[in-house]
Specification:
The complex is a heterodimer of chains A (about 300) and B (about 500). Chain A is mainly alpha-helical and about 300 residues long. Chain A has helices spanning about 5-30, 40-50, 60-80, 95-115, 120-150, 155-160, 170-190, 215-240, 250-275, 285-304. The radius of gyration of chain A is 19 Å and the shape is globular. The mean pLDDT of chain A is about 90. Chain B is α+β, with helices and mostly antiparallel strands and about 500 residues long. Chain B has two domains: about 5-135, NADH:ubiquinone oxidoreductase Nqo5 subunit (Beta Polymerase, domain 2, 2-Layer Sandwich); about 190-510, Cytochrome-c3 Hydrogenase, chain B. Chain B is built from 16 helices and 16 strands. Chain B has helices at about 25-35, 90-100, 190-195, 200-205, 215-230, 235-260, 265-285, 305-335, 335-340, 350-355, 360-365, 370-375, 395-420, 475-485, 495-500, 505-510; strands spanning about 5, 10-15, 20, 40-45, 55-65, 70-75, 80, 105, 150-155, 165-170, 175-180, 295, 300, 440-450, 450-460, 465-470. In chain B, the strands form five sheets. In chain B, strands 1, 3, 4, 5 and 6 form a five-stranded mixed beta sheet that branches. A four-stranded antiparallel beta sheet of chain B has the order 2-14-15-16. The mean pLDDT of chain B is about 90. Classes of the chains: A mainly alpha (about 300), B alpha+beta (about 500). The interface of A and B includes residues 120, 199, 202 and 274 of A.
């Protein structure tokens, strides 16, 4: 780990709650509102951390441990994400598989602590989350495979370093398709529209939010922060595909990288402002479509 | 069907003119009326005249095709054979009757409390089984099976809405059955109205369902007009009708926005939220209250509109409606919205006819009934209101029917403002209730609120005071439509279906 790594990890830890602020500000602009402050999520987390804990009578230790495991697993996953030209602090052959499963572990503990409450709502949310996550996984794995073939590297940092942008080559077109598919994956994994609606108060329609309905106080603060990190991880993965390899200095490149991550948050805000959610029954079709998109990109890479 | 029992809306009926049928004849005449397309507008009890400790049951049935309201009555003591098996639209009415008057409809398929009233008029309670009455504590329909799970929602909800309890019997994401329990808001208004009218009466009327203040206030005012024999001047009727249409515009606009909100479509949600306020402000411009409280009163309206106000109203309506059109057209033009609205929460026309649904919800599945067109009253006698209809009975149909109604309302207000009749806005009626209404008389008064037909029926006693005052809010007819729309539907689409009906809890609970 070098100074650049430390800087990029710190920026992820510090800036990830800002992504929600950016999304909400963009949505507010579309709605003709002023919107909440950019730093609102920081205020929310600070407020939650000061609160006491309330646990349901039916919950066990699992409910309390769940959010901690979630936070730890996404933080570990963050260590494997490269930051553009700056390699990830933790990089080895096949690290993308561990990354996928660390995110799986975080989901596993969210689901466990949701089921622990014994609430009909949370059980329903857990069932939906698991179903859709299973359908989203091929998109990530096939995408990583595509990059491995495209670059001949088996670690995420290596892939990002070797990624080539030859205009008009089928391989470049494949990467563009991959960006679209991973954007969809980002929306799914982070419970955004069109798959889920993070702002709804309607428990029966929720997927992710309903699993933390009984969570409050500092535990909710942890959950909120962990979801910020998770959004940062997915945004960073996409930003890695987009960041141009410039001959600029490390700090300039880092700045460009963070700028692209924030632009992705803007894009999420725009998507949420101009379309509605799909019906729950249709979500598998969307996810299968996303997988088909990556599969097409993969074929193009193989052919190219 | 004897012609003696057919009346027009707001007719004054001498009780002595109403034949007292025996149970068989009563049942037959109701069956006959319902088979001819009648909707049971009210079905309620009153103290019996000939039988000791008995109950006189009144049935008020409206037939849209003839524009006639028929009134029938019979007397019973402790029990009577339930009519619900043959006339399903009576199912909630008979539960209500059993709760309010402690008479048993024998053979009712699902007899249970409807408002969780502590006791009936005679102090009894035949539905609680001797236990203390607690709202929501009752038997629920349940489906047994390993893979069935039950989801209970409410009475306290996540949004700032009224209390109601919903129980879903689910198989995975699919709903087999939804049971709706209300009554948490029961205030005993009908009981408080007995012995009236007095100075409290108008306030009870305008808060029966706060979002339908004008519809209920209007129904009460024209009912009192008939009882006192004092008609509202033409100018008052025109102003009252404009207020009623503004109420419809405000609520439909708000609900179309809320429908968009439920599926996470922000543009229409945001704009309609503001536009709803603009319509409310127009009502505020007329009478100083955004919900039209104290505008329509017995004998007329309390506030006149000056020429300057008319000009301002016309100007505002043109601007606001133009913006509303842009905002609502976004719904029909956005594929992700239409994908959610179409084929969601489908209800069938035959169910609607059998269960007696009213209002835009009924019209959206092809049931042609609108009190403004079929039982015209007030200004609608002079200016015809087209009926907005759809066929598919899904969320889209309900949303689009409402949009068509908004277009019609706008045209109606425009035309009425352009040809505002001159003259007085009130006839001389004492608002404290000191004028004595016609004695031993029944008046049925219908208006068309934004949810559907509002029915008020009053029976006066020998002193000319209310012996019974019956209110039927359109929500009372339509709550079961929501339950039907969820059959085999996804539980995740419940909020959307619910919003497409947007029924009143307090209007039902009274």
């Amino acid at each position: 780990m070098n100074a650049n790594n430390v800087m990029m990890i710190l920026s992820a830890l510090l800036l990830s709650p800002l992504l929600f602020g950016v999304i909400n500000r963009v949505k507010a602009m579309f709605a003709g509102r002023k919107g909440s402050p950019l730093l609102q999520t920081y205020f929310d987390i600070a407020k939650l951390m000061k609160k006491g804990m309330v646990y349901g009578n039916t919950t066990s230790l699992m409910f309390q441990l769940g959010p901690v495991f979630v936070l730890v697993s996404v933080l570990l996953a963050l260590l494997m994400v490269p930051f553009g030209p700056i390699a990830a602090p933790l990089s080895f052959q096949g690290d993308f598989i561990l990354l996928a499963y660390l995110l799986g572990v975080s989901r596993f503990f969210t689901v466990l602590s949701a089921l622990d409450t014994g609430s009909a709502f949370e059980g329903m949310g857990a069932s939906r989350e698991v179903q859709f996550a299973a359908m989203g996984e091929p998109t990530f794995m096939l995408g990583a495979l595509l990059l491995a073939i495209h670059t001949g590297e088996m670690s995420l940092s290596g892939m990002v370093r070797e990624i080539q942008f030859d205009v008009l080559s089928p391989a470049t077109a494949a990467v563009v398709l991959l960006v679209a598919a991973w954007m969809m994956l980002l929306l799914t994994e982070n419970s955004r529209i069109p798959v889920d609606d993070p702002n709804t108060h309607l428990e029966l329609t929720m997927i992710h939010e309903v699993m933390v309905l009984d969570t409050g106080g500092p535990l909710m603060g942890i959950v909120t922060y962990a979801s910020g990190i998770k959004l940062w991880i997915f945004s960073a993965l996409i930003a890695n595909l987009l960041v141009p390899t410039l001959s600029a200095g490390a700090s300039a490149q880092a700045g460009i990288f963070v700028g692209i991550v924030l632009l992705i948050a803007v894009a999420v805000g725009v998507i949420e402002s101009i379309m509605g959610r799909v019906r729950l029954r249709q979500i598998p079709k969307v996810l299968v479509g996303t997988t088909a998109l990556v599969a097409t990109a993969l074929i193009m890479t193989l052919a190219g | 069907m004897s012609d003696a029992t057919q009346y027009r809306n707001v007719a004054r009926i001498k009780l002595s003119d109403l034949p007292l049928l025996n149970m068989d004849a009563f049942k037959n005449v109701i069956l006959n009326n319902v088979q001819n397309g009648g909707v049971v507008l009210a079905f309620f009890g009153a103290p019996a005249m000939t039988v000791q400790n008995g109950v006189c049951i009144y049935a008020i049935i409206g037939t849209a095709t003839t524009g006639c309201i028929s009134v029938h009555r019979t007397e019973v003591t402790d029990a009577y054979p339930s009519l619900t098996p043959e006339v399903p639209q009576l199912h909630w009415f008979e539960r209500e009757l059993a709760e309010q008057w402690a008479i048993t409809p024998e053979g009712h398929p699902w007899l249970k409390p409807i408002r969780f009233m502590q006791q009936a008029v005679n102090g009894k309670n035949i539905l609680s089984g001797g236990k203390t009455v607690v709202a929501g504590v009752t038997d629920y329909y349940s489906v047994k099976g390993k893979e069935i799970h039950e989801v209970a929602v409410g009475p306290v909800h996540a949004g700032i809405i009224e209390p109601g309890h919903f129980r879903f019997q689910c198989h995975g994401e699919t709903v087999f059955h939804l049971e709706i329990e209300l009554g948490y808001q029961h205030r005993g208004i009908e009981k408080a109205l007995v012995g009236g009218p007095d100075k409290r009466t108008p306030f009870f009327m305008e808060t029966l369902a706060g979002d339908s203040s004008i519809a209920h206030g209007f129904a009460y005012s024209q009912l009192m007009g008939a009882l006192l024999g004092k008609e509202m001047p033409k100018r008052a009727l025109a102003i009252a009708a404009c207020a009623l249409e503004l109420e419809r515009l405000a609520n439909h606009t708000g609900d179309l926005g809320a429908l968009a909100g439920d599926i996470g479509y922000l543009p229409t949600l945001s704009f309609n939220g503001r536009l709803r306020g603009d319509y409310l402000n127009m009502t505020g411009l007329i009478c100083g209250n955004r919900f039209g409280r104290n505008l329509v009163c017995p004998g007329g309206v309390m506030f006149d509109v000056s020429d300057a106000t008319i000009t301002e109203l016309k100007k505002r309506l043109a601007t606001i409606f133009k913006e509303t059109r842009i905002s609502c057209d976004l719904l029909w033009a956005t594929p992700s919205v239409m994908a959610r609205f179409e084929n969601t929460g489908v209800v069938k026309k035959e169910d609607g006819i059998a269960l007696g649904w009213v209002g835009p919800a009924a019209r959206a599945c092809g049931i042609d009934m609108d009190a403004r067109a079929h039982f015209p009253f007030g200004a609608y006698l002079d200016r015809q209101m087209p009926v907005a209809m759809a066929e598919s009975g899904d969320v889209y149909a309900r949303a689009h029917t409402r949009w068509q109604e908004m277009v019609n309302s706008r045209a109606f207000i425009d035309a009425t403002l352009n040809e505002m009749p001159a003259g007085a806005t009130r006839t001389d009626v004492d608002l404290m209730g000191k004028d004595i209404p016609e004695k031993d008389t029944l008046v049925v008064s219908l208006t068309e609120g934004w949810r559907g037909v509002v029915c008020h029926a009053a029976i006066t006693n020998r002193e000319g005071r209310f012996a019974v005052y019956k209110v039927v809010d359109p929500s009372f007819h339509n709550w079961f439509a929501l339950a039907m729309s969820l059959r085999d539907e996804q539980i995740s689409d419940f909020p959307l279906c619910n919003k497409s009906f947007n029924l009143s809890y307090c209007g039902h609970d009274l």
